[in-house]
User: What shape does this take?
Amino acid sequence: MQFSDLPLDHRILNFLNRKGFADATEIQSLAIPHALIGKDLIASSKTGSGKTLAFLIPALQRVLKTKALSQRDPRVLVLAPTRELAKQVFLQLRAMIEGLPLKAALILGGENFNDQVKTLRRHPQFVVGTAGRIADHVKDRSLFLNGLELLIMDEADRMLDLGFAEELKAINRMADHRKRQSLMFSATMDNTELHYLTKTLLKAPQRISIGEANAPHQDIEQRFYLSDHIEHKEQLLKALLAQTPFQQVILFTATRVDSERLAKLLQEWGHKSVGLSGELSQSQRSNIMNEFSRGHHQILVTTDVASRGLDLLHVSLVINFDLPKLADEYVHRIGRTGRAGNKGTAMSLVGPKDWRSFMAIKTFLQQHIEFSQVDGLAAKFKGLAPAKSLNPKHKPGKNAPVKAPRSKNKPVKRIKSAQGVDVGDAPMLRKKTKLIDRDED
Ligand code: ADP
Ligand code: MG
Assistant: This one.
């Protein structure tokens, strides 16, 4: 479908023209018409398929074409799980309303609250932000949502993973009137809590789901490498970076500490690299993302704070130094590449400690996975036998530290081939983990 087939305001069509976007993506063709007639939506499609415009186009159309319920309150509120994603959505929106007599505000955790109060007093029609801080402004009565017409939740499932259910409910209560429309978007929607919450947040929603979240992403080549321990992972990483041509890389690690350490190590190896984690100040985080998107760094080393939504055009390679605990996080992480029809590669290092996650991912993807190897760096580790990896007896005791020292991997029972492992009772896909790098506000 072409955008010009949709009954869109000429100012929106002009914007799309300037961007060179003539054809709507699949999710846009399906979601925009429903959103335009005021239906609530719960929509999912693969990473990089154009979900942002699928909600920003109807949002702008509403503001341009209909009378406001309130002159004072925002008409559209967009919530995102991380500051980086909220900012990206805001920048997209700002480009769309450039030159129009409309205002948009970006309200992020970690930034000055009083400055935000002042910004909100200028009565922007659009507010984009992270859920915690928006809820704080609602509580503080610096943000009123009685006039809110459209609530958009990008990466809604992730907001719940991060524990923002209460904030979402509070925001919903403050904007609870019959005229309100709500849209939810993500590449993955299999969060049980989300299904309960949709009953509260959405009215008779239209469900749009393009492809299965676990369907292979055609534009992303996925490779898995067995590895023995952290030093071996480092050797593999060095070799893989040396032998793989790439534009930019995002390297994911399990913890903030590892991000910092690996960023330094990569610098020693001669790569321009930088670490990004949730504990940095907001201005540091912004600087790093700006620099990375402008190509000042080759490699961004990060935790799951950067797994969601970020649209960085030159990322051709994603490396999972450690596997994420949640299988759907894997889908989002690798989705930082292969966007908007470009090709990308995702490489994951699978050591003994990643085995449970690997099995969960394998079950989720329902794919046959053949391990790749780097010459001279074959792993001795071949996977854990199901009994060994899943038997509760072998879990660390209650008082064991959450993170065992990484270099001293316990000897593991080896099986001949990792391929033959029964995946029937893989661990739960969704488990809250202490390792989530959460934006606190
Ligand atoms: P998602 O939210 O589904 O992961 P994004 O909204 O971030 O995807 O879009 C991914 C990329 O696709 C962006 O760079 C965006 O500008 C581009 N894009 C969006 N819509 C179109 C379109 N209709 N035609 C071409 N490119 C598009
Ligand atoms: Mg997105």
User: Anything to note?
Assistant: Residues 393-435 have pLDDT under 50 and may be disordered. The two ends are 40 Å apart (CA to CA). Residues 51-52, 154, 309 surround magnesium ion (ligand 2) (CB under 6 Å).
